[in-house]
């Protein structure tokens, strides 16, 4: 069982590289979001037999909300990155229009809750999984209120949120953790707390 | 290629409006569409947007291309809401084995579908007509958004069109070194994943270098920045906001008068 | 005008065990014009970054101090302008004019003054387009000019330039140097410039500081005296001392055709004119063909098409024994026939360590392990990459990255090798090794095509020349 790594609390102001890293992640994932919109729309007929199952696709939309805080470890990193990624996908042309930005903000906030609960000192697997799940719950809550208000609670709303939370925990939570681990040897994280423990060459 | 294909020329009236004014107008309209639960309000808002369209300078064809996906999404929302409605109210229109769709549920679904249309159209109207540099300038000048974050995000946005080129470079490099998926779907998927990863790592590496380039030009100092391009709220910009507020209020009023309004 | 002082300065990059520079004790007086020399990897770029206040504690470990005007460099960023080794990564904004203005906004220059200064700076460096030009649609030379405009517009008191003309064609390089000379004549700023080719830049400087391989200064003084007194020692360390003899390795008689290009043409999507417009050439075993021409004449495009890496609009590239043109060969097969080295080394790396990068090609080709190990060890040693064997390719210095990418292609030893600017950013010694390695494999029968602005390289190897201009063949002559 991997333990939560403790890192010094993110102090003071954001460095330029923190801002840029979050922003660039947001741009990259904005494109992914935009592409994922098509997957989401395209899979509709396939999942028509059980629409709540669509929640399972949700995790991909939440990766920035977990990945960015895991890398830069600053208060608000998830919020900034997720909202910005949503904005980029809106810039590229999203079917959800401006609403996707509100939703991005909400998703980012959901993720922040998990990191805030660890007082921005815990960035282990458990925190990442919780952040992914919470971000997904926030997102799908917005969905059921705004897009699916008339659906039945037990036949649609609850399973939809549950599938999404699962997807968020696995794809966004564990996935981000795995991404960070894979990035360590590439040296791109050397300037971040996450990359500090790497062996010297 | 990933660029924001503009739907209007740089001199179109809507392209010259202050981005913050456009954002405010769109926020107004979409919030009303979110709050209203009936089908008439969003329909009226949609009609209002169609009416102003000729005055914005937007070209019809690129706009239509951008909005194409919208109908698909709207359709989905209608179906899901109708199928999974808490109770199938009204006259039963359709029965398919255990599934039944009532007219009331369908109407509710259509209302939500129209909500999607409003959101998407408004999104295209503001985002497809706004230059990101102008947006960042207006955000810092009119809304006093923190300049380090806005300008930093703007600099990252410049990389957007480069991502496609970067992808090509990575795949070309791999081909040169003898790596290619070929017809094997497993190999193809693995190569695709590793190319994505390379792109992501490359993006973070670029972020670091861009940050250094910005700091080297005095970005991260305590001195308050000046602005090379001025963004102002002109009377026309206030009119845009007023117009949006007026349209939203009128839509709600009509819908209340017609007795369809719900929240 | 800022006095610059290093006191017992040393820097270790995060993730590295060795220090990049150590024991630097230097003082540069206000208004001095300094040339910083040293072998590739000796820490020249690192020292400039330190002066620009970019080496903050999160990026590595520091000993001693670096002072600008008696204060820490990180607090003096506003007074320093730096041109990085790689121009592509230093443009910040989407439009050329905004990019130059960016530095002025940060300095809180009033709006009324910004645009005149932007226009002046663009004119001074000879930037050929207006301020609305997209920054990502510029060739390497144009990017370099724009970046220089961004530096000069801020009127820095300390100007730092890292190989300002690497990758430019000879005329373009001269143009940038002229722009620089004119700009310097108007200021009394302190200048520190890094350049390997000493002769080109000597008239711009009045003092030379040379770093040794360990990153410690080994010579310092007026340019003429340092070169006269320490010339031999510096040449032995890898400095391009003007007048030092160059190697000469002409080839023998070429053998059979190894690669043919027939009427190759390509227009990039959205481009107004073709990048390559019907070029025909033949490459034979055991010869070196040098492709030359101004920036943007289509050299890299030719290399790409000849290497089967892009689909030509018209024409074919073929190797004997393959019926299909190269661009239709499966990658695995292609890699055993033709090897390519890209102009930007970073675009080529596919593994996470220098050693893996060198071993990659021969592993793909199925060599036995001991043969791979022997070849990798040899290349690491000859190209002075041995201490960096486990480092990530993306953390190398400019010259190191170039050598690694060339060595990676050499290691796999396919019958045909296409090299795009194989020698840029090299010191005299690693340059000599590259010449020798290239000559060795050529004499073993490999057919080589090298895109290059480096006349010395072509001359040393007695290359045949294919000159391009505007995407067409301008002349084909033995060098
Ligand atoms: N970001 C980095 N991370 C780790 N090591 C680095 C980094 N940048 C440079 N180095 C290492 O520090 C040493 C000095 O590099 P530097 O770029 O200063 O050399 P240089 O003298 O400019 O060489 P060149 O002439 O090849 O550009 C090299 O060994 C290089 O591998
Ligand atoms: N990916 C691309 N997309 C669009 N245009 C391109 C692209 N790559 C190159 N070009 C254009 O094609 C022309 C030929 O480019 P190429 O890179 O082959 O020139 P080059 O001779 O190698 O120049 P240099 O000496 O600067 O490397 C140039 O005008 C360049 O701007
Ligand atoms: Mg260097
Ligand atoms: Mg080239």
TrEMBL record, chain A:
Pfam families: ABC_cobalt. Keywords: Membrane, Transmembrane, Transmembrane helix. This is Energy-coupling factor transport system substrate-specific component. The lineage of its organism: Bacteria, Bacillati, Actinomycetota, Actinomycetes, Glycomycetales. The chain crosses the membrane at residues 20-43, 55-72, 84-105, 125-148, 160-184.
TrEMBL record, chain B:
It is a multi-pass membrane protein. The keyword Transmembrane applies. Its main location: membrane. Signal peptide: none annotated. The keyword Transmembrane helix applies. Pfam families: CbiQ. It is found in: Membrane. GO terms for cellular component: plasma membrane. Keywords: Cell membrane, Membrane, Transmembrane, Transmembrane helix. The chain crosses the membrane at residues 27-55, 67-86, 106-128, 238-261. This is Energy-coupling factor transporter transmembrane protein EcfT. It comes from Glycomyces albidus.
TrEMBL record, chain C:
The keyword tRNA-binding does not apply. GO terms for cellular component: ATP-binding cassette (ABC) transporter complex. PROSITE patterns: ABC_TRANSPORTER_1, ABC_TRANSPORTER_2. Residues 4-238, 259-477 form the ABC transporter domain. Keywords: ATP-binding, Nucleotide-binding, Transport. GO terms for molecular function: ATP binding; ATP hydrolysis activity; ATPase-coupled transmembrane transporter activity. Signal peptide: none annotated. SUPFAM superfamilies: P-loop containing nucleoside triphosphate hydrolases. Belongs to the ABC transporter superfamily. This is ATP-binding cassette domain-containing protein. It comes from Glycomyces albidus.
